[in-house]
Amino acid sequence: MKEIGIKFNCNWIESQPLDASQIEKLNKWREKLYGLELIGESPDGIGYGNMSVRSKENTFIITGATTGKIKDLTSQHYTSVTEYDFKNNSLTTAGPIKASSESLTHAMIYECDADVNAVFHVHNKILWKHLLETLPSTHADVAYGTPEMALEIERLFRESDLAEHKIFAMGGHEDGVIAFGRSCEEAGSVLMEKFTDVLAQKLWDYHLMHHQLAKSDCILALGSHDLRVGHRAAELFLEGWAPLLIVSGGLGNVTKGIWTETEADQFAKIAIEKGVPPEAILIENGSGNTGENILFTQQLLKDRGLDPQRFIVVQKPYMERRSYAVFKKHWPEKTVQVTSPQISFEDYPNEEIPKHRVINIMAGDLQRIKLYPAKGFQIPQHIPDDVWQAFEKLVALGYTQHLIS
Prior knowledge:
This protein starts with 8 loop residues before the first strand and ends in a 9-residue tail after the last helix. The protein is an alpha/beta fold. 39% of the residues lie in helices and 18% in strands. It has twelve helices and 15 strands. Strands 1-7-6-5-4-8-10-9 form an eight-stranded mixed β-sheet, sandwiched between helices. A five-stranded parallel β-sheet has the order 13-12-11-14-15, with helices on both faces. A two-stranded antiparallel sheet has the order 2-3.
């Protein structure tokens, strides 16, 4: 993750700083990436990350050497690369500072794709690991800032669909990720989309409880805007996991703005259409949140003279953990397993529930998991540091619509 030093032969022509207009767009993106710690300073004081824009056909402007740890850059921290030679591992730079140690890497990307006009090199462990597992990457034995790295990038362009993805992990440069595009906006958008997805996946994985189902006394479907929950609950009943299906939910914060029929009534219709006998279904259609789902269901069962001991709770995937914590707060003596529609984060969003809404709700639910035990709404749940850090990054990216004040 460190930008320790220049590994190429640098012919530095010290000259006046660039005009501010030449770096304006690049610097705005640099400020954003620094704020997200994609560029910055490691614990041992070494700066990481560098960025560039093409200025002419074979020249580009790049952040200077060892500037990664500086928060706010000015024209004094940028320089122009005017010539480069991969075979002789050399380049010429003109400006008030020497060029970044990754300059030859940037140069090769510009050489390989004439449409590329911006290159961003950042560092983030979870993004790096994700890209290593999912997209073409440079070999682990190739070091950063070397002619070998430049040749590796040339190989990726030649042998893979790198030009289409516009992002890759540097296998031999821990945490190193490079994104590029026809403009700063495109390079930044490619990077932000991938970064957001890996942060959201971190939250998604945390919210899942991974309970192994066992035969139970009843299935409790907690209402929501996602009708797939109703389908999952009905399927579990038809598979014989429990002899009773309870559907719970009136109109909550989300559904009261889009539906007139209650969540529970819609879930009941789904179950009957799938073959669940109406007499096996109990409907609780007055609750407006997860706590009320449990409390109102308790009263419904009491009124019917029923006292099931083992529950299967069905909820959206990213609400499994909070549903469990709320259930155990209000019904600690009962046995509960939590499940949800069996679908991945990648496949979950649709036209009715777009990705940005899913991420906003996931972030809000994680915040509630942290804050609600003190309010008496649920039992505590341990939140690992890396999960909370992912939450903070998503908040910094603007996923705040479902947060509580």
